[in-house]
């Protein structure tokens, strides 16, 4: 029996995937961009819309990065507005476990889940650097292990809050006309060095019991977090054999925590370029990549790795033959930072020398190497192969334009996936996001 393909639609704009110089590029602020994208994704029967989040405008060398998006609106506000103009597609937002608090965020997500009739999801991410943390009272720095310890505790507390209402609480009180009974809502008490909570949650269970949880980390800690808490992994593993290895590793961890293979979906990010012929698609891919990685973008990338001024270097020339500036030797963590940066640069040099790449071509190779390039039929066949041979459960599709990035994919690839019988013909009426994806939640304690 063929496996069902699941697709998420990634609203572009947080990184250099987006081509802002295209005359059809739209606003990152105007709600019409989000509405168009959401309606188009729903027309393509995508499982959910995926909204990334940036907590601060990017800066480089003391200036606002002029190739970044112009503003970063609040994720939950956008998703709440989209709930009113869509009917079936899931609404997933990226929200940090480092710079939020469990009760507040759980309440906001539960509210969105009710407003959308069970279509809300949370991409739980950790944030480590003081650059973003400067916008918050804590200042932001957490070691890697502490980030995931906080994330795991955050997720566990959120799930306890979401499930703290007895399943029959609302129904019973509606029938009797009585006030909500105190014993219908569990008191959630938790004290640790990270969180101190003594609360009764004030939002009833939602139609899907709790919002969906998506996770994007790839470290051992990230995989453990996904195994224990996530319903979907947003991975970076798109090379076929590498994706199969990742699939086997993560899915193989589920039995130990009492979960089944389909309880956790793996949907890596995937870009695409279509053409009427393979040659045309390859030509378009090169044109789009050059627009995604402009000369100044390539130089900026190197400057951030080397921590040096490379403004005098030719982006079409070779990598700089200089050592990185890793800070004073007396700085805390100097040895580890120095080794990590040197290791990264050594890998960059190896790729550039092996493939004879200029600076710009190297950055294109690293950041704009499109996942699927070919005719619509070839792309549909490739996607189907990944799913049927258990390299993924589907993909998070990333277009290169805002808000028209999915137009071609929806018009030309989706019908071919449907012809194969591995992609839905319609949404199930009234389905929650959890039902659309086919992922089970935790058993409901009554």
UniProtKB/TrEMBL annotation:
Known EC number(s)? 1.14.-.-
Q: Which UniProt keywords apply?
A: Flavoprotein, FMN, Monooxygenase, Oxidoreductase
Chain ranges of the Luciferase-like domain: 21-390
- One Gene Ontology term of the molecular function aspect: oxidoreductase activity, acting on paired donors, with incorporation or reduction of molecular oxygen
| Annotated positions binding FMN | 94, 144, 148, 219
What Pfam families is this protein classified in?
Bac_luciferase (PF00296)
- In which domain of life is the source organism classified? Bacteria
UniProt cross-references to PANTHER family, sorted A to Z = ALKANESULFONATE MONOOXYGENASE-RELATED, C2H2 FINGER DOMAIN TRANSCRIPTION FACTOR (EUROFUNG)-RELATED
Q: Which family does it belong to?
A: Belongs to the NtaA/SnaA/DszA monooxygenase family.
- What is the protein named? Putative monooxygenase MoxC
> Its encoding gene is what?
moxC_1
């Amino acid at each position: 029996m063929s496996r069902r393909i699941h697709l998420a639609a990634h609203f572009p704009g947080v990184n250099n995937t987006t081509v802002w110089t295209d005359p059809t590029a739209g606003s990152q602020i105007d709600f019409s961009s989000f509405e168009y994208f959401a309606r188009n994704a729903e027309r393509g029967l995508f499982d959910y819309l995926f909204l990334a989040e940036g907590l601060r405008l990017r800066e480089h060398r003391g200036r606002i990065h002029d190739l970044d998006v112009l503003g970063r609106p609040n994720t939950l506000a956008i998703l709440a507005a989209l709930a009113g103009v869509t009917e079936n597609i899931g609404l997933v937002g990226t929200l940090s476990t480092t710079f939020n608090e469990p009760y507040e965020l759980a309440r906001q997500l539960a509210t969105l889940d009710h407003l959308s009739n069970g279509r809300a999801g949370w991409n739980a991410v950790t944030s480590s650097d003081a650059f973003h943390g400067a916008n918050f009272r804590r200042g932001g720095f957490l070691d890697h292990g502490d980030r995931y310890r906080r994330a795991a505790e955050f997720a566990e507390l959120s799930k306890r809050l979401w499930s703290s209402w007895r399943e029959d609480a609302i129904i019973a009180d509606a029938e009797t006309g009585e006030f909500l009974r105190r014993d219908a809502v569990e008191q959630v008490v938790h004290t640790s060095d990270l969180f101190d909570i003594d609360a009764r949650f004030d939002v009833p269970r939602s139609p899907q019991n709790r919002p969906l949880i998506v996770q994007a980390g790839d470290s051992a800690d990230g995989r453990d977090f996904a195994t224990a808490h996530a319903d979907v992994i947003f991975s970076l593993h798109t090379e076929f054999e590498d994706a199969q290895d990742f699939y086997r590793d993560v899915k193989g961890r589920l039995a130990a925590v009492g979960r089944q293979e389909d309880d956790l979906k793996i949907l890596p990010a995937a870009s695409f370029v279509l053409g009427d012929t393979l040659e045309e698609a390859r030509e378009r891919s090169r044109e789009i990549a050059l627009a995604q990685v402009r000369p100044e973008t390539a130089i900026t990338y190197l400057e951030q790795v080397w921590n040096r001024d490379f403004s005098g270097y030719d982006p079409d020339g070779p990598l700089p033959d200089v050592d990185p500036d890793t800070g004073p030797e007396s700085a805390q963590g100097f040895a580890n930072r120095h080794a990590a940066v040197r290791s990264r640069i050594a890998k960059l040099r190896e790729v550039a020398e092996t493939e004879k790449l200029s600076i710009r071509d190297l950055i294109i190779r690293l950041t704009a190497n499109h996942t699927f390039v070919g005719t619509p039929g070839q792309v549909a066949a490739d996607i189907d192969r990944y799913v049927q041979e258990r390299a993924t459960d589907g993909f998070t599709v990333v277009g290169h334009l805002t808000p028209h990035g999915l137009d071609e994919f929806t018009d030309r690839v989706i019908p071919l996936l449907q012809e194969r019988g591995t992609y839905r013909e319609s949404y199930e009426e009234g389905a929650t996001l959890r039902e659309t994806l086919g992922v089970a939640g935790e058993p409901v304690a009554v």
